[in-house]
Amino acid sequence: SFKKEERLCNKRLLEKLFHNGSSFLVYPFRIVHLSEPLPPDICSQVVIGLSKRRFKHAVDRNLIKRRIREAYRLNKETILYSYLKQHNIQIVFSINYVGKEIGDYGFIEKKLVAAIKQLTKAYVKDAD
């Protein structure tokens, strides 16, 4: 499941994330992340975004967001949460879709898994 508590809605945290966060690119995603204390039962909070300029029609934006949310929901527990709980890390991050075309679900899932693995590697250095 992808609960409300796992979504990043706090304006203060969003502003802090985009002003102070680190970022990397795994095409078609740009990930911005920041280590931030959260309530004890939550490992991470995420916000998903894409450009209105690049995808003019809301149906296209919604389709891509649905595919990203589903790929994240299915892979977060095995890849991200197990690592964060093991190292006692809490993060906020954003997944921005910067691709120019609407990718099919298989492509989006494969690239999102690669991006999440790279996100965990960014915190390996910090934890050790």
Short description:
By secondary structure, the protein is α+β, with helices and mostly antiparallel strands.
Percent of residues in β-strands: 15-25%
Intertermini distance: 31 Å
User: What order do the helices and strands follow?
Assistant: HEEEHEH
Largest sheet entry = 4 strands, mixed
Instruction: Give me the Rg, rounded.
Output: 14 Å
Give the rounded overall mean pLDDT.
94
Based on Cα principal axes, name the global outline.
globular
Structure commentary:
With 128 residues, this protein is an alpha+beta fold. It has 3 helices and 4 strands, in the order αβββαβα. A 4-stranded mixed β-sheet has the order 1-2-4-3, with helices on both faces. The mean pLDDT is 94.
What would the keywords be for this entry?
single chain; 128 residues; alpha+beta; four-stranded mixed sheet; 49% helix
List strands and helices in order, with pairings.
Elements: H1 11-20, E1 22-26, E2 29-35, E3 44-50, H2 58-87, E4 91-97, H3 105-127
Parallel strand pairs: 3-4
Antiparallel strand pairs: 1-2, 2-4
Helix pairs in contact: 2-3
